[in-house]
Amino acid sequence: MWLIVGLGNPGEKYDRTRHNIGFACLDAIARRHGLEFRVKRANSLVAEGSIGGQRVALAKPQTYMNESGRAVSALRTWYKVEPARELLVIYDDMDLPFARLRLRERGSPGTHNGMRSIVGQLGGNEFPRLRVGIDQAPGRMDAAAYVLARFSKDEDAQVPDLCDRVADAVELILREGFTAGMNRYNAT
Questions:
Q1: Who is most buried in 54, 101, 105, 144, counting CB within 10 A?
Q2: Could you tell me the pTM of the whole model?
Q3: What pLDDT does 188 receive?
Q4: Catalytic residue list
């Protein structure tokens, strides 16, 4: 069983914002595989099913970004997953250029408050993550305002293809393993 968590903030106010790219990617994965977010569990919306012969639970925490760890910790307990082998967190990253993907098996949360919360609640950073580049805030724009802003018109037009690439990466990870995913997507 894989627990695949996309980070974001609940509510229409945050739809289509940079910080919610994790939710958008999970929506694309769910659509592709005919899964629906019908279950409410552990402060999350969950879609359960199978992808590439692997049982999966796709989860969108509803705790708001800064408290994502509460939901992820409860989901880990509910599904009895081993974070280092069966958890994947998808989230936005300002340190990567727009649309660049980066997979890591472990690592620090950096400046991302959602990831800080997860690392704190899980008691360590030994779990896979897929970082989705949203680029740096322009000029002197406040980072919090930037991540909570909607994508530019050009970026927004590219988001569906970006989410499809994330879905492709997740399918590859489930089919061939995390190393295969890193080899393919970290090079581009």
A1: 101
A2: 0.97
A3: 62
A4: 19
